[in-house]
């Protein structure tokens, strides 16, 4: 899974091609958003050729954790609780987009909302909600020194 | 992870002491249990070399869905809701075991509990709880005909 | 709390057959919203004089169930799953507002989101998020005949 | 509901410093259990004369919080997340019993499981599961001085 971003959003942390963590206008962690896209392949389908609901949960936990890591100033976060409501299925071959938005960025606890939507390449405006998740993170733990390299990588993509 | 798909896995969709949804002794769906094992590799770790919490959720959804599929008599199930509480981390290289147990097997709604534990190969008795999940399934939808092959495969493993 | 039972509350339950919360376009069940207000009294506080988090959950389940009942055309609904994330505390004496919004109104399953916010009577624009809940309902069960009276009462408050 | 406040309830809140729910071996906080009983009256029913699912959630949050308060050595706890799965309904007039058990008592985060069961006064062995909840608490915050009186009250009941 990778992440991309819409220039109109404020701060964004993305891993693949674009994105940001602190914008020219005074950035706040509350505004950080993580966006990622995924094409539904057989690997992430259950036997009925539908996106495995657990993959939606995995995407939610991953994007929220990345966002929480950036929002806490590149300190370590731990997932505490994850709740996912599956709304509609995504079929093999379809494209989905995950957007993680902070609900609350506290010193100890962060709560993120992650919505996964089906995107229609021909009509970018149409985005059907597939699932909605809430992720609770315990934040602000010290990151081990060997994570400095990872931090630099994320910072590169989480550009202004 | 779809545990029963890989013959090398220790998967069983079985009841407490004997067997599966079609055992000689009067089987009840309520007794069906799905067990799967996983070694924590880099693929399923987050950057801190700890098992990605989203992978625990994925395992929970997958094992519960498999159990629900068997418990409903090989009819289609849909994941509706997934809640995962992360209790302790698992490190790179460690072995984990997931056990999905039915809380309620209703005609329309099934609820499964999935516990993931760390197993110590040297002392099989020690099993530290890593996460506990609740999975809500909408069950009893008709399975498409082309799933007959999958059904046969599951039935083969769902017997001791 | 069953918001529409007390005439003093600001409740409105809108559905497809009635009208949505302020929509000029043809209303649909998806647009129905249930709103209720509550003053934090000692009865709903935990011993630390803070709104009991369980009361927030109770409000969420109640408003979502009322909305689901209306959205399904006054048929019976059952709560299946409730997830509440507590964001900030509300203190004794403060006023809170709950808003239940449908995420999906399916034939069998409904998912509602309920946000509870603190309202400042002096500046109605300021609304701090206190909690956010997701409620899963099993819908469309037949309502017993003796519920006709209740249906009429709700219909009166579920005004256009 | 704060079960241990009413002497008529069968509540016991046991902790490491006091005593566990019937354990001959040295008790630990992990073994602390909170039990409360409730008769389903009209007050806690939804309009269909069934126990309001939100009341189950309220009971879960309350019993878990009480347990967490004791388990942390009478320090303040905050509810962070609550997940409730409703399994079966309880009808007007029936008796229910809630049992809160710690899943993990950490320094910062506690996770409690609360099961609510229907009890049949004539056959005390029959206990049908009505709901199962998971409560996440942020623990170990300093309790205000004026809570000393409450602490003493709880300590009185938190002993067999």
From TrEMBL, chains A, B, C, D:
Region spans: Disordered: 1-30
Alphabetized Pfam families for the sequence: 4HBT (PF03061)
Annotated GO CC locations: peroxisome
Entries under InterPro entries matching the protein: HotDog_dom_sf (IPR029069), PAAI_dom (IPR003736), Thioestr_dom (IPR006683)
Family annotation (Gene3D superfamilies): Hotdog Thioesterase
Skewed-composition ranges (Low complexity): 1-23
GO biological process: phylloquinone biosynthetic process
UniProt-recorded Gene Ontology molecular function terms: 1,4-dihydroxy-2-naphthoyl-CoA thioesterase activity
Residues in Thioesterase domain copies: 49-122
Keywords, ordered alphabetically: Hydrolase
NCBIfam families associated with the record: unchar_dom_1
Protein name as catalogued: Thioesterase domain-containing protein
Source organism: Ananas comosus var. bracteatus
């Amino acid at each position: 899974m990778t992440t991309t971003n819409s220039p109109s959003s404020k701060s964004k942390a993305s891993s693949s091609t674009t994105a940001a963590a602190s914008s020219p206008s005074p950035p706040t962690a509350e505004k950080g958003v993580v966006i990622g896209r995924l094409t539904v392949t057989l690997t992430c389908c259950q036997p009925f050729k539908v996106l495995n609901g657990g993959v939606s949960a995995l995407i939610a936990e991953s994007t929220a954790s990345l966002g929480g890591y950036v929002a806490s100033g590149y300190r370590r976060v731990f997932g505490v609780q994850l709740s996912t409501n599956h709304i509609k299925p995504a079929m093999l071959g379809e494209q989905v987009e995950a957007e993680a938005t902070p609900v609350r960025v506290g010193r100890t606890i962060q709560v993120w909302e992650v919505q996964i939507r089906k995107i229609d390449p021909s009509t970018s405006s149409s985005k059907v909600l597939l699932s909605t998740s809430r992720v609770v993170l315990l934040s602000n733990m010290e990151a081990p020194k060997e994570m400095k390299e990872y931090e630099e990588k994320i910072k590169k993509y989480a550009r202004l």
